[in-house]
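Researcher: Can you fold this with magnesium ion in place?
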Amino acid sequence: MDLSPYRIAPGEPVRLADRPTEVDGGKTEDELDDLHDANLEALDELQERLFAEGTQSLLVVLQAMDAGGKDSTIGKVFGPLNPQGIRVWSFKKPTEKELSHDFLWRVHRRAPGHGYIGVFNRSHYEDVLVVKVHGLAPPDVIERRYDHIRHFEQILEDGGTTVVKFMLHISKDYQAERLRRRLRRPDKHWKFNPADLDERERWDDYMRCFETALERTSTESAPWYVVPAENRDFRDALVSSIVRETLERMDPQFPAPAFDPAEYPPESIE
Ligand code: ATP
Ligand code: MG
């Protein structure tokens, strides 16, 4: 699958309205499932190598509007992997204590250590999205955050962490459909938050803030991908393809053994 149409080149102007939200990539549902399954198999081995190597890590950032499918993407792409190697963290509204620090304080401590894949369900990007839409910090403070974020992600990279970022892209109509579904199904009521409707009213503001964030923080080494997220089979296959490609480029290697295997023929163990 060609991943490049979904990648934001550094400095590229982004118009989300021009980007598709529903794509099948010219593949049937079965073909997308097969591709996703093949990716999972490859990811399973790559993750084991990453862990064994213990000198690099991968950070996956997921952002989306409400009902955009972050939870389900995490389940589909990372759920099948060995849970011991995955660190998922969901960023909620900051606590009093978190707010008494700089905005990256709570984020940096959740970055994955060597050998791990970290997954951020929401992230430091909330600090230039919801915070900007609601004016929760002064404009000049928010304005400086794009540089702070680029530098922060560079610090992670310098420490051996590769960063890859996904915006799950849905239309406002699709969000309405998903929210209605939550209301129609009693077993989904727990997922419905009336406050999501206030955010929905600010859809256009959110899109503008996403565009600015994508334009200003997509870099060669920490790229953003805009994932058409309405066809969920395509979404899963695309995300797993990108994570796989990223890990393949990191090329983790099993470490050389700390003993001489010639000295320990397997038959010598009784
Ligand atoms: P769910 O799918 O379960 O609704 P969620 O990620 O929406 O998952 P919630 O607890 O509903 O989880 O929402 C978290 C809320 O916290 C979001 O509205 C988000 O915008 C907000 N939030 C996250 N980070 C910040 C931040 N730095 N400043 C202000 N609000 C934030
Ligand atoms: Mg929510």
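Model: Folded with magnesium ion in place. The beta strands are 57-64, 86-90, 117-121, 161-169, 224-228.
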